[in-house]
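For the sake of transparency, this paper describes our internal protein records without simplification. Because each token names a local backbone shape, the row as a whole describes the fold. One such record is reproduced below, unchanged from the form in which we store it:
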Amino acid sequence: MVFSEKQRRVLTWWRPDSPDRGMQAIICDGAVRSGKTLCTGLSFFCWAMRSFQNRNFALCGRTIQSVRRNLLSELMPLLEGMGFRCVEKVSKNVIQVRLGGRKNTFYLFGGKDEGSAALIQGVTLAGALLDEAALMPRSFVEQTAARCSVSGSRLWFSCNPESPAHWFYQEWVLKAEEKKALRLQFTMDDNPGLSKEVRERYASTFQGAFYRRFVLGEWAAAEGLVYDFFDQGFVQEAPEGPFQEWYVSVDYGTANPTSMGLWGRKNGVWYRVDEYYYDGRAERRQKTDEEYAGDLARLAGGRPVRAVIADPSAASFRETLRRKGWRVRKADNQVVSGIRLTAQLLKSGGIVICRGCGNAIREFSLYRWDDRAPGQDQVRKEHDHAMDEIRYFAATVAAKEGRGGMFAGCVERGRF
């Protein structure tokens, strides 16, 4: 296996002959597919097994599933090929590792919300690796760091950039020298295993702040139009002929507008072929759940709709639809990752907005990041109703059936 100069520094920073040996932590941040995760994990295991015997370590991700998928699936075969003996107790989220005459225990933890900090309390650690650290709450990261109380313990962090006002950037990246942390910023050029074709594909997939973060590796603020690339060139006529399957996506409003999109799949592409949009405030009359259910049936037009992807907050409307025989799925409502996936799918042609969807086309030109919420990736709560249900569909259905695995890969890192 060939490593870049930056990857080799990650692999050796802890060694007695390294100029970085006095550091207490390492932070690897930057572009996607830049080789951070593999070399960070390999370095962590080599350090742990060389430095300690019969000690406990933590492997942390946003969820335990993401630790296994993003880190261990590629790392474990490599370690075993190097002579490590790894025995995973899946039900206990534990890996016992032996090398030579040494044995250590590695516990898997998920840090997805504020309650996750309690999961790691009470354990004494000799070190911890936190993959996707910027997606974890501060309380979990700080609790993990506090558990590393064994003499000689160290911390490994890897992440993709977020907003420059993100707490991890403010407290760890900018204070790396103060915390005796080696900060290495990665680009795709630091991954010798990445072909030019793949680099170009990723570069064309992202836009705006996401391009600066995930391709250039910058901690960049989101500003301006959310879909600043969207224009009439992204609008097409609905194709002729039969579609393979149908869905309806719904953002439900009472005082606010209700938006529904009718989606058909043809030759691997999802077309938003028609829409329903009703603004009760503008019309001066609110509709009932029963009336909206009738409107949805008319939009579907007798087509065999596989499921309705519904606003997760619209409990009563979802129940009304179920009583009428519709299969209803609660939408994935992670806003920022959903926006990123929607942009990727639009730019790649995975989803297409058709000419009959005038309200969606109008909202694309008005939907903006909220510059009144400094330091946070938030969108303005206006002109967002079609935008929300399109995002629901993109994140819940379309991204999980992306062509060539591109969108499945992007979902994995962003959501889990």
